[in-house]
Amino acid sequence: MPLFSIGLSHETAPLAVRERAAVADADVPAILQGLRSAGATEAVLVSTCNRTELYARALEPGPLLAWFAGRREYDLTRYLYRHQDDGAARHLFRVAAGLDSLVLGEPQILGQIKSAYRLAGTAGTAGPLLRRLFPHAFAAAKRIRTETQIGMHPVSVASTAIAVARRIFADFPRHTALLVGAGQMIELSARHLHEHGLGRMIVANRDADRARRLAARYDGFGIELAQLETHLHEADILVCCTASPVPLVRAEAVRRALRQRRHRPMLILDLAVPRDVEPATAELADTYVYTVDDLQQVIAGHLDERQQAARRADLIVDEELRSFRDWWQAQDRLRVLGELHRQADDATEALLARAHRRLARGEDPAQVLAHFGRTLSHRLLHQPSLALRQAALERDADLLRAAQRLYRLDSTHEDDDE
Length: 418
Prior knowledge:
The protein contains 14 helices and ten strands. By secondary structure, it is an alpha/beta fold. The chain folds into three domains: 3-147, Beta Polymerase, domain 2, CATH 3.30.460; 157-299, NAD(P)-binding Rossmann-like Domain (Rossmann fold, 3-Layer(aba) Sandwich); 364-418, no CATH class. A hairpin with a 3-residue loop joins strand 2 and strand 3 (51-58). It starts with a strand and ends in an 11-residue tail after the last helix.
């Protein structure tokens, strides 16, 4: 099939290069139209923070390579990978399922590919081949999500930390989390907590305004870091990640908080290096303390499980690829039928035009119709007749039997050699 995929990703290019190749959604339609004008009859452009890829139907990959070569006046060709035909389809299926992602099995890429496909549909560059290919990719990704455990376990520190919290506190809406810091890790933790239905959130930071802004995005409230110990007893879950060189949460402060809580358990997730929580805190009764090292051990186990699931996922990719290939080969066979109909229609139109001219000259309609019928029959059977005569001379029994099946002919004799 005339299918190509050309692109770069986190596997082949550093961030500085990926930034040069990235494309804003607003620019995609013009790029797709330009590629089509250059010879790519169909095209879909996928651009995310970790990859920029073109999927196109073309006689040769020149237009795709030329676009990458001149992307923002910077030659990207040495960072590119290229796949063709089955290889291009397989690559798309694996990308859509998160098997080629920086985080194995991450689900966000599927939504990004669906968005890219919609943009191509709007631009009119998703033709019959890509309109079949991309839904096959979506179906493969759905099967992999349903039939494997590839997305079951988190593989980032923030998501793993919140997964631990959910195992300890099953009824999230009834619990409170106190987050210390306002950087990326705390923001990710806040988002995960909010998405899983946490009941109440407090954010503590040296910059109180920043704490309030972050908390407001997730229906929480912010406090100054100086107020941390005042609110510590409210925390069922304490998440810390700051750049402080010394611990901010003292073991004695946690001990007092536990007395106020009447020794209801407290989960402490210390994501900072150096640690934000005094090590002695882990020795207190009614505390569950996890450091970054503890969570990395959990993540390592999860990665092993995801890699096992990825092997099963690749088998599903193979199955979906065979299904897509069968469809494509059927289309190729149906093109033969289409060409046969086109030749018959052309012959009929030409002879009808001749018959109309003869009728216009006043010739006998019966003779005109008889001539039309005989001539059309001879024209339609001319090439098959030549081929069958040659087959008879060459004793090509396979072609003769095929003709009998095709035209439903009753055979009254067998070949002399049979």
